[in-house]
Write a structure and sequence with these properties.
The protein has 13 helices and 8 strands. It has helices at about 5-15, 20-25, 30-45, 95-100, 105, 130-150, 160-170, 190-205, 210-225, 235-240, 260-270, 290-295, 295-310; strands at about 55-65, 70-75, 85-90, 110-115, 155-160, 180-185, 250-255, 280-285. It has one domain: Alpha/Beta hydrolase fold, catalytic domain (Rossmann fold, 3-Layer(aba) Sandwich). This is AB hydrolase-1 domain-containing protein. Pfam families: Abhydrolase_1, DUF829. InterPro entries: AB_hydrolase_1, AB_hydrolase_fold, DNA-binding_regulatory, DUF829_TMEM53.
Length: about 300
């Protein structure tokens, strides 16, 4: 296999954090937040999205487990609270999208923190691992908020790659000291290799053509040998029975999602039954990828509120 082709594919996967300087200079994150807010309002007509006041959001930096610089934004509730929501964005997205998509938690009395995963938004360039190293970044984010703000209680919400990251974290046995009450998984995927195949197929197209599977095998080898990310051994199915303790998860997906399959949420839900926690699953009949919130706004947030109240 041509090493140049394989390296090009890896560069394409990791090309989401380029040319961000112009976007983010002079507090450009506020402009992005405003655009996302307006987009949600235009789709839902839910004026409460504007209750999440952009002027009250602040930028902050912290370190990842491997000393990369990660950038986040936080919004403090108007009523003082030690309860926090950590919002996790999807592949090729950013902290601004997950912050605004979590707006209703402000109404429920939470502070909200969102951050850019490695090689996204304003955070440092680093290999994107579709949830494997991102799970460690999430742990660093939670630890940072606990130390910086004295947070006493956490809830997590993730979208697509962020949802997969939250699911991994829920199985990691690394969260007991943080008092995490629940997680919301919006449009997750189950298998990292499957989603990488979709990404490579969509971004590389004619470059790989009929040799996609061979290219992917070489990509996996590079991830393993050069970056020590073993996608074969990193098996979620095996992690679930090894999990000693977890927190309840709400799984939300759509049958019309063509990016990730609703069956992956069902798979997580069914396999986690052995863990003895009160998970909830809701599959909408309609709604694009991570768009059930705007397609079914009232029902979406009712599901979230009912789930939290039952935990």
């Amino acid at each position: 296999m041509n090493e140049l082709i394989v390296q090009k594919i890896i560069e394409m996967i990791n090309n989401v954090n380029r040319d961000n300087f112009e976007i983010y200079k002079n507090n450009g994150y506020r402009n992005l937040l405003s655009l996302y807010q307006q987009a949600i309002f235009d789709s839902t007509k839910d004026e409460s999205v504007f209750d999440l006041e952009i002027k009250n959001m602040n930028r902050i930096e912290f370190k990842s487990f491997d000393s990369k610089n990660l950038v986040g934004i936080y919004h403090l509730n108007s009523i003082k609270t030690n309860k926090w929501i950590i919002a996790c964005h999807g592949f090729s997205s950013s902290k601004e999208s997950s912050m605004v998509a979590s707006y209703y938690f402000d109404k429920m009395g939470y502070n909200i923190f969102s951050f850019d995963f490695r090689n996204h938004g304003e955070s440092d360039n680093a290999l994107i691992t579709m949830g494997i190293n991102e799970q460690k970044d999430l742990l660093c984010a939670i630890d940072f908020i606990k130390k910086e703000f004295g947070a006493k209680e956490f809830g997590l919400i993730g979208f697509s790659m962020g949802a997969h990251t939250v699911n991994r974290f829920a199985l990691s046995n690394n969260f007991q000291k943080y008092n995490i009450k629940f997680g919301v998984s919006d449009s997750t995927y189950f298998d990292t290799k499957v989603v990488l195949k979709k990404i490579v197929s969509s971004i590389a197209g004619p470059i790989v053509g009929n040799i996609l599977d061979k290219v992917l095998e070489e990509v996996y080898k590079v991830y393993n040998n050069k970056y020590k990310i073993n996608l074969d051994q990193d098996n979620i199915t095996l992690k679930i029975p090894l999990c000693d303790e977890t927190f309840p998860m709400l799984y939300i997906h759509s049958k019309k999602d063509v990016v990730t399959s609703f069956q992956d949420s069902e798979k997580f839900f069914n396999l986690r039954k052995i863990l003895g926690v009160k998970d909830t699953l809701h599959i909408f009949e309609t709604g694009e990828h991570i768009r059930t919130q705007v397609a079914h706004t009232q029902m979406y947030w009712k599901l979230v509120k009912d789930f939290i109240n039952k935990k």
